[in-house]
């Protein structure tokens, strides 16, 4: 899941950079920074097409996703809807709004209708956070399973390697508890009446326990709650519930869909906490499942069950005055914890050692992310694609990026690696940062990359880099880079610097030379068919302090738009 979010963010980065350049001239009253979280969650929800927008997408996004995702509800209430209006207008006017989307007018109309409800939702979110902060002040130790006390230790962990989604989805399809939740939902059927005090009658409970092959009724209710978490069961009236129409298809064939279902039930791990007859004793053990998981992770992903019992018994006693009594009353408090975690595919137990599965590691990392705790988690080297490598390297310090590249290269033939990197860079012509990263890495491979560079000459976005490196390598029949090639490289540089902010962009302009040099460049660079040309020309005119440069940029922009 984490690598999927990172991949989606990397995919959106060039589009958002383009929007940031477009907004000042076309939507000066909007705040482009507010669009990022909304665009990311939309991309994750629509599963694969960042440019496909429907009216119903906006309702789910603004009223369901954003109240949970925004960092500053107050700022979102003031500016999110205007920013989205600008973003949708940008997508439409620049050809990024995919076929099949609702018309722009309908999308804007839906935003107008949702604006008041969205502001109310942001006010509710702000109130909830204020309440949570007050609760935090009253009780610093909210839960035995709180990750915050371990934040420093988590940050100091060596890099955690995550398996690819295809493997994780395969594991998710085998999770026993999800299958039981599906079976329970199918048993529920359509329009089953439930009671106010007891959801099911004694006869229904006995029938359900038998249908699922459970040993006792208590576990039924945890599976019932899991089925609701997984959206296998949903209320469809005041006193009726029904199975979701897609439930019978589990396990889903699509990897992303399968992982999404498993992730919906991730917080069901709290159902593994022991349940005692005394509510106060039960409360003293709340968070025990999470407490075990974080300790296993901190120990490198595996821990002795005996050590866990001793440490968690001590932690429980420190956490709650009733902790010692609760631990004793539970008999073996870790038995239900281990049973649920193994049933949810997160741990295995062999020779009294508890070990996180790849699925369990993914889940714990996801919960750490939710807790806003820094953790270094990346795709496993052997499963890392060229695009993964390029995306992650862009955000790493140079030494770490070099080490990541070396480890990745150790598993590949250099010539093939060069081809993979350049092919990844060619996937999105608008992503200048990925293109520059790829060119730099392939350039470090020397003559072995010549065949890959020759292939890259056929890609318009890579030709300037290929021509430059082939000339530097004195490759046979290599042609000198053209003026258009040089201009493309300059536009890529400007694209990257513009994404870093106005100061960086202005600095990149000064790197070109004097105002007269830039004016001379603008007189010809408008002919280059670069995906960000028009936005960059607008940005040059807006950012450069010399008025003559501004005028030259406007002339170049006019020529670019008119094709003259």
Automatic annotation (TrEMBL):
Keywords: Coiled coil. Residues 298-325 form a coiled coil. It comes from the Bacteria. This is Uncharacterized protein. It comes from Planotetraspora silvatica.
């Amino acid at each position: 899941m984490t690598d999927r979010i990172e991949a989606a963010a990397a995919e959106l980065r060039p589009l958002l950079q383009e929007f940031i350049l477009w907004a000042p001239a076309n939507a000066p009253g909007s705040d482009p920074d507010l669009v990022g979280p909304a665009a990311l969650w939309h991309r994750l929800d629509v599963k694969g097409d960042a440019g496909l927008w429907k009216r119903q997408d906006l309702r789910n996004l603004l009223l369901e996703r954003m109240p949970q995702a925004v960092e500053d509800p107050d700022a979102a209430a003031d500016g999110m809807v205007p920013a989205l209006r600008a973003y949708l207008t940008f997508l439409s006017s620049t050809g990024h709004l995919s076929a099949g989307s609702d018309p722009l007018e309908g999308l804007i109309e839906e935003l107008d209708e949702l604006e008041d409800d969205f502001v109310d939702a942001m006010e509710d979110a702000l109130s909830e956070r204020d309440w949570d902060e007050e609760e935090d002040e009253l009780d610093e130790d909210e839960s035995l399973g709180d990750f915050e006390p371990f934040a420093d230790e988590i940050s100091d962990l060596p890099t955690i390697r995550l398996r690819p989604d295809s493997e994780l989805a395969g594991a998710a399809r085998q999770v026993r508890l999800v299958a039981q939740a599906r079976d329970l939902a199918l048993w529920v059927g359509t329009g089953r009446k439930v009671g106010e005090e007891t959801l099911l009658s004694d006869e229904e409970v006995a029938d359900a326990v038998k249908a699922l092959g459970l040993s006792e009724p208590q576990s039924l209710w945890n599976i019932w709650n899991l089925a609701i978490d997984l959206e296998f069961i949903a209320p469809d009236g005041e006193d009726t519930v029904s199975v979701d129409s897609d439930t019978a298809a589990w396990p889903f064939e699509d990897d992303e869909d399968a992982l999404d279902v498993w992730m919906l039930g991730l917080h069901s791990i709290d159902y593994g906490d022991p349940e005692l007859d005394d509510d106060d004793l039960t409360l003293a053990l709340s968070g025990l499942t999470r407490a075990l998981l974080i300790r296993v992770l901190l120990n490198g992903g595996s821990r002795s069950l005996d050590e866990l019992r001793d440490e968690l018994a001590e932690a429980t006693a420190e956490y709650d005055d009733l902790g010692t009594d609760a631990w004793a009353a539970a008999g073996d408090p870790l038995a239900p914890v281990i049973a649920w975690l193994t049933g949810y595919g997160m741990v295995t137990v062999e020779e009294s050692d508890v070990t996180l599965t790849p699925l369990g590691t993914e889940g714990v990392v996801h919960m750490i992310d939710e807790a806003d705790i820094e953790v270094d988690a990346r795709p496993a080297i052997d499963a890392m694609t060229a695009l993964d490598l390029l995306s992650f390297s862009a955000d790493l310090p140079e030494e770490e990026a070099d080490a990541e590249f070396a480890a990745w290269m150790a598993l590949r033939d250099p010539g093939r690696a060069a081809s993979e990197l350049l092919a990844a860079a060619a996937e999105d012509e608008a992503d200048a940062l990925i293109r520059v990263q790829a060119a730099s890495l392939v350039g470090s491979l020397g003559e072995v990359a010549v065949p890959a560079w020759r292939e890259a000459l056929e890609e318009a976005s890579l030709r300037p880099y290929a021509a430059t490196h082939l000339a530097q390598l004195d490759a046979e029949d290599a042609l000198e880079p053209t003026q258009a090639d040089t201009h493309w490289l300059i536009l890529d540089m400007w694209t990257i610097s513009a994404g870093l902010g106005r100061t960086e962009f202005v600095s990149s302009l000064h790197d070109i030379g004097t105002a007269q040099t830039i004016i001379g460049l603008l007189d010809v660079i408008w002919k280059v068919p670069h995906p960000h040309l028009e936005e960059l020309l607008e940005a040059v005119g807006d950012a450069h302090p010399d008025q003559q440069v501004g005028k030259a940029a406007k002339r170049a922009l006019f020529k670019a738009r008119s094709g003259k």
